[in-house]
């Protein structure tokens, strides 16, 4: 196993090994000495809207809500399992990238991380 001298996240010298992992007690970062030579794998930045499972969403798709979503300024909520038809993809800039209408609630914007493609 390779013997690193600094934490790759905070550059601290106070690191220790625990089996196959190296641990930094200052920032709680854990890494493998074997994986440190490889480049980290990041999610593709292709500007596509993806659901919670990573499926690409398109205009007109149907989605299912996977988490109860409370609506700000209201006592109502969108229940788990609510099916939303005919979504529109938007670029609101605040993370709400799905515009839709839900029966009983009306027009609403949702975050794609809380839905699953139906």
| Strand order in the sheet with the most strands | 1-2-3
SS summary, helix count: 0
Mean pLDDT: 86
Class inferred from helices and paired strands? mainly beta
Number of strands: 11
How much is the radius of gyration in Å?
21 Å
Helix fraction by DSSP (H/I, runs of at least 4): under 10%
Outline, from the CA principal axes? elongated
- Low-pLDDT runs: none
Q: What does the main sheet amount to?
A: 3 strands, antiparallel
Distance between the termini: 46 Å
Strand content: 25-35%
Q: Helix-strand pattern, N to C?
A: EEEEEEEEEEE
Domain Protein YjdM N-terminal: 6-32
Family: Belongs to the YjdM family.
Pfam families: YjdM, Zn_Ribbon_YjdM
Organism: Bdellovibrio svalbardensis
Task: Describe, in plain words, how this protein is organized in 3D.
The chain is mostly beta strands and about 120 residues long. Helix content is about 0%, strand content about 30%. The chain is built from no helices and 11 strands. Strand 8 and strand 9 form a beta hairpin. About 15% of the residues are buried. It comes from Bdellovibrio svalbardensis. Pfam families: YjdM (PF03831), Zn_Ribbon_YjdM (PF08274). This is Zinc ribbon domain-containing protein YjdM.
């Amino acid at each position: 196993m390779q013997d690193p001298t600094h934490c790759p996240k905070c550059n601290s010298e106070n690191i220790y090994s625990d089996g196959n992992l190296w641990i930094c007690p200052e920032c709680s970062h854990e890494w493998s000495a074997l994986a440190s030579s490889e480049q980290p794998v990041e999610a593709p930045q292709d500007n596509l809207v993806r659901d919670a499972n990573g499926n690409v969403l398109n205009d007109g798709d149907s989605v299912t809500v996977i988490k109860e979503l409370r609506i700000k300024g209201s006592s109502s909520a969108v229940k788990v399992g609510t099916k939303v038809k005919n979504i529109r993809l938007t670029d609101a800039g605040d993370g709400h990238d799905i515009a839709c209408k839900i029966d009983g609630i009306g027009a609403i914007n949702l975050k794609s991380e809380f839905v699953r493609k139906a």
